[in-house]
Design a protein that fits this description.
Elements (H helix, E strand, L loop, with lengths): L3 E5 L6 E2 L10 E10 L2 E8 L5 E4 L23 H20 L8 E5 L5 H8 L3 E6 L2 H10 L4 E3 L11 E7 L8 H11 E12 L4 H6 L12 E2 L2 H10 L2 E9 L4 H11 L10 H17 L4 E8 L8
Parallel strand pairs: 6-7, 6-9, 7-8, 9-10
Antiparallel strand pairs: 1-3, 2-3, 3-4, 4-5, 5-11, 10-13, 12-13
Helix pairs in contact: 7-8
């Protein structure tokens, strides 16, 4: 058995599996089989709502889910790529959020704050920031380089009496085994009417449909695979109100997938080959044209009047 492989499932018959976190149903079909060391998991799809998730989760222990990479979190120190990402991605998020916030200096909790680079950009834009990060290496960098106040902890073990105007979850929720429980916990950190900003991969992307099992699924760390529809449904289920949803292309998923197809390697945390980057551009533009980008951004409000559906 290979150390790691993802293949099409041989048996796609509908069967009962782990309950779907979005709709609660158990009828699923297996799309892919994932082998990781000596463990086997399936990527299954709920036949009722279409949500995709791992069953069972390949990484059982919480500490094994921590990602410690530093260079890839900041575009390998490339000032041009960092500036481009700040202008096109971060600034758009900040403008979108500001429309739903009062003036002043909003209090912001960045869950999964990584190296602190993104958190620091929010701080530059007059947000009073606090980071939360499980990786000790990334926490140290955020504190020392960016002077960001960061709590070193998994969100599962974190508690606070503070209430925030906005909580940011950037490429985090897909790592959480029980996202419904996590989102309810996040609601308790927000003021009534406070905002939740989620940036997360969109599994209904043109790249995933083109490359299928060769897509960069980021296994074994990603446990759930959302679309705008399924994630919006989950957020509304736990008491959030939709304000804005939009899609953006990722700078990494397509190049990494093409790099793997061309050169037989999956450099998840290394800069992909320039040929792979160039070949990915037409797919990126097609995804933008069809609104099938590989990243999505969701802004939801903590609605005190929302009727919780369980």
């Amino acid at each position: 058995m290979p150390m790691e492989s993802l293949t099409k499932s041989l048996n796609r018959a509908v069967h009962r599996g782990k309950p779907c976190v979005v709709c609660g149903r158990q009828e699923v079909k297996s799309l892919y089989t994932y082998c990781y060391h000596e463990r086997t998991s399936d990527i299954v799809q709920c036949v009722n709502c279409g949500h995709l998730y791992m069953d069972p989760v390949p990484l059982v222990e919480l500490n094994t889910r921590t990602m410690d990479g530093v260079a890839d979190s900041e575009f390998w120190g490339n000032a041009f790529l960092q500036g481009l990402h700040e202008r096109l991605v971060f600034n758009r998020e900040i403008r979108a959020v500001r429309k739903f916030l009062p003036g002043g200096t909003p209090r912001l909790l960045d869950i999964g704050s990584g190296t602190g680079w993104a958190t620091f950009i929010w701080q530059k834009n007059r947000f009073a920031v606090t980071g939360l990060e499980p990786s000790l290496e990334r926490t140290k960098r955020a504190r020392e380089l960016y002077r960001i106040p960061v709590v070193h902890s998994h969100i599962e073990n974190f508690s606070t009496t503070e209430l925030y105007d906005i909580v940011v979850m950037r490429h985090l929720l897909e790592h959480i085994e029980h996202p419904d429980q996590m989102l309810r916990k996040v609601r308790s950190f927000l003021k009534p009417g406070g905002l939740l900003l989620i940036i997360i991969p969109n599994i209904n992307s043109i790249g995933r449909h083109l490359f299928r099992e060769n897509w960069e699924w980021v296994l074994p760390w990603h446990l759930h695979f959302y679309t705008p529809k399924t994630l919006s449904r989950l957020l509304e289920k736990v008491g959030f109100e939709k304000l804005k949803v939009y899609q953006m292309p990722s700078p990494l998923w397509y190049p990494h997938t093409i790099n793997k197809a061309l050169f037989g390697s999956a450099p998840r945390f290394k800069f992909p080959h320039i040929i792979a980057v160039l070949l990915s551009l037409p797919i990126v533009f097609l995804g933008m044209l069809l609104n099938l980008n590989d990243n999505m951004t969701l802004i939801f409000r903590n609605s005190a009047s929302a009727a919780l559906k369980g």
